[in-house]
Amino acid sequence: KGELIYHYLTSIFYFCDMGRQKRREPILIENIEIIDTASKGKSVAKHDGRAIFVQGGVPGDICDIVVFKRRKKFWEARIEKIHTYSERRTEPKCEHFGTCGGCKWQNMKYESQLDFKQNEVLNNLKRIGGIDLPSHSEIMGSENEYFYRNKMEFTFSNKRWLTTEEVQSEADIADKDALGFHVPGMFDKVINLNNCHLQKEPSNAIRLSVKQFSDKNGLTYFDIRNQEGLLRNLMVRTSSTNDLMVLVQFYEDDKKNINLLMEHIKTTFPEITSLLYIINQKANNTMYDQEVICYNGKDHIMEEMDGLYFKIGAKSFFQTNSEQAKVLYRKTKELANITSDDLVYDLYTGTGTIAQYVATSAKKVVGIDSVEEGIKAAYENAERNKINNCTFYTGDMKEIFTDEFIAKNGTPDVIITDPPRDGMHKKVVEQILKIGAKRIVYVSCNSATQARDLALMDELYKVSHIQPVDMFPQTHHVENIVVLELK
After folding, report:
1. 8 Å CB contact between 103 and 191
2. Which of 483, 377, 394 shows the shortest CA–CA distance to 131?
3. In 85-175, which ranges are E strands?
4. Of 140, 232, 260, 454, which one is least surrounded by beta carbons within 10 A?
């Protein structure tokens, strides 16, 4: 109910805001230069000392822009016409570019993407963290610029995003069902994808087949506002071992139509090694508290990295770029500089990947994560990989990472932490400071929250090394490794 109320109020505020904006005439600014990139894939121009965030611009573009939103500290605009194209520009590969929010940097050459990602990391650490930057290594780029993701999640919706041509035609649109990605800023609008360049086949083939079969058989698509409909989400996970997981999330408990669709997927794609489904009748589509039902095959897939094997379940966290994850973990191990006498803590361990990567160099490794399924997989992975010096615990990090926990497991010499995008809870940072480990390796997918946490640790630690790693080509996201040493 809380989720529904939130979406309801969000919708009211959105349309009220649109109403206010309509009363203010758009502003056309001609021959303005795009000078930099900004958060969430936007670019930046400057006009009369004011920052203007522009959709779809590439630094170096000279263009006319239309300002559609005015705030006290910044404006937002879209490009009306480009007079001079930036040398950093390239032709996007995807037909959905510009509408889909997944790959906002497809119009920028990859070497330029790397430049701006590195600059963002360093600027965040300096501006937000107040860090005196040490010598840093050049960002490590991804060998694969496309088809690098091992996990994709698609949404079913009965409110398809209509093209400009469809809207202008004023025709009665009968087909309003979609299977694809949410439109940025629109929680109930979904783009129907024809082809996606992020995950290798048979990802596109599975999604298109599911859509075609569902339409042919009259299966209902989810209505997020009214909380009704059968089909909710589709997840596809691949691995380097050629395992393939497909999970369908349903809203209604309609066993007849659930079996109809699942049997179609099973017979059409026999290469699927793990075929699963969930019946989720909550207001949101998170699956961590839901029962996963195995329809056919195994309830997991296997991933191999440098001779180590990892079991990945439907709820398990694993880096979405398998090849680049090897680069990330190798570099993390190198920078941790672990000795055979060291006790290592691996915070937010997931399925124990980093823990087992460094285990051969350490005396003992203790891993902690909040997802019980991931910790179970971590133990199975350690046994499979014949690693016997790892111990794993399940629990909310801020609640389990206490003085009592340290007393029981020992004071770590080295801490490796790889938290979610929100960074570490303040209590976790406080506990790290209380421990005073000789070295901390902080891996982050959000350098802004990483910088915030580093500022809190500044009283005891200094940053000795910075290593950005690009895990997400064609997007503004970037992974970053920071090494902290005791002052």
Report:
1. no
2. 483
3. 151-157
4. 260
Q: What is the DSSP letter of 307?
A: T
The predicted-structure confidence for 211-229, as pLDDT tens digits, reads as follows: 999 999 999 999 999 999 9
103 counts as catalytic: no
* Kind and range of the H or E run holding 312: strand 308-313
Q: Cα–Cα distance between 106 and 467 in angstroms, integer?
A: 24
With CA atoms as reference, report the closest residue to 369 among 385, 382, 353, 380. Answer: 353
pLDDT in tens, 154-179: 999 999 888 767 777 777 777 899 99
Q: Output phi, psi for 60, to 5 deg.
A: 110, -20
Angle, nearest 10°, between helix axes 447-456 and 110-127? 20
What is the C-alpha to C-alpha distance for residues 290 and 8, in angstroms, rounded to an integer? Answer: 25
Candidates 63, 196, 390, 445; catalytic one: 445
Q: Please name the residue ranges forming H helices in 138-284.
A: 164-169, 203-216, 255-268
Nearest alpha carbon to residue 101 among 39, 45, 159, 51: 39
CA gap 288, 46 in Å, rounded:
44
Grouping H, G, I as helix, E, B as strand and the rest as coil, residue 334 is: helix
